[in-house]
Amino acid sequence: MIMETVFTPLQSLAGGLLIGLSAVLLMATTGRIMGATGVVAGLIRPASTSEFTWRAVLLAGMITGPLVVYALTGQMPEVQVPISSPMLIAGGLIVGIGVTLGSGCTSGHGVCGIARLSWRSIVATLIFMVTTGMTVFIIRHVIGG
Amino acid sequence: MRLISVFFVGLIFGVGISISGMANPAKVLNFFDLAGTWDPSLAFVMGGALIVTFIGYRVVLKQPAPILGARFHLPSDQALDLPLVGGSALFGLGWGIAGFCPGGALPAIGTGKTEVLIFVAALLAGIFFAKVFLVTLVSRLTASA
Q1: Which residues of A touch B52 (CB under 8 A)?
Q2: Which of A7, A58, A135 lies nearest to residue B40, judging by beta carbons?
Q3: Considering its fold, how many domains does chain B have in total?
Q4: For residues B14 and A22, what is the distance between their CA atoms, to the nearest angstrom?
Q5: % of chain B with per-residue pLDDT over 90
Q6: Domain span at residue B98?
Q7: Are A13 and B115 within 8 A, CB to CB?
Q8: How far is A39 from chain B (nearest CA, A)?
Q9: CA distance linking residue B88 with residue A99, whole number of Å
Q10: Do the beta carbons of residue B82 and residue B89 sit within 8 Å?
Q11: Chain A partners of B64 at a C-beta cutoff of 8 Å?
Q12: What distance in Å separates the CA atoms of residue A52 and residue A42, rounded to the nearest whole number?
């Protein structure tokens, strides 16, 4: 199923600036990379209690984000899911395996890694942007078309 | 003090993701659907996040240490190896199927939407599977090769 969405350059730019700000603040305060993969992967079989705790608190802050948006605007952020549950499960499993092997995702490689001009992150980001685009093209225009 | 600031950093990330559209699979998939219902918004998310992080990291990483930590934890691995390439390719496949990446899905837990919870459960299962089985397997294979 395909849903049209409205082009939101200003909101998306503002969101991006805040994401960048959070990455800079996390590095400035704790010296850590703001990577969603690192946050969840570190919660599973953590090396120590303190490694677990800061990630759990960071995650709690992230989850509070939409609630703050709701409190300020009276509207929950839009989450439109034109995907069936079996596909969500398949996608989730594949993403989980992929980001663990690849050591990062959009935030860790795509934002923090590229900002450090890390070759690994630049290569990883190019690869996953291309394979995501190919997957969407095949699902929507080859299989679905 | 450290955990309070980590919470607020997570909150800024969560608000940023919420207003950016990264937590909205319909918008994410449309960004990649150049041949169909294209929505270029996410380029503004990545652009905004990268500008702030690129400049911010230059300032922060000149300091001898983070404000609330002993040292900066930066990945030292430089190798463009198979786990990085294959893992990133898999991540793209899963992202294209489900429309959620980890950084988009984690804050979206706060909206309480069932689809988000389904994806995150599968994501955790995938990360767990990869951490327990695949990472050991890959390191054995590369060690013996």
Answers
A1: 16-17, 19-21, 23-24
A2: A7
A3: 1
A4: 9
A5: 86
A6: 2-144
A7: no
A8: 9
A9: 6
A10: no
A11: none
A12: 6
The residue count for chain A: 145
User: Of A108, A115, A97, nearest to B83 (Cα)?
Assistant: A97
Predicted confidence (pLDDT) per residue in A33-88, tens digit: 999 999 999 998 888 888 899 999 999 999 999 999 999 999 999 999 999 999 99
Is ipTM strictly over 0.90? yes
3-state secondary structure of B19: helix
Distance from CA of A92 to the nearest CA of B (A): 4
The pTM assigned to this predicted structure is 0.95
**B109-130 residue pLDDT tens:** 999 999 999 999 999 999 999 9
Question: Residue A98 is nearest to which of B21, B48, B90, comparing CB atoms?
Answer: B90
CA distances in angstroms from B15 to A75, A141, B32, B79, B96, listed in the order given: 13, 33, 23, 34, 24
Q: How many Å apart are CA B108 and CA B25, to the nearest integer?
A: 11
| Token output for A138 | 């095949």
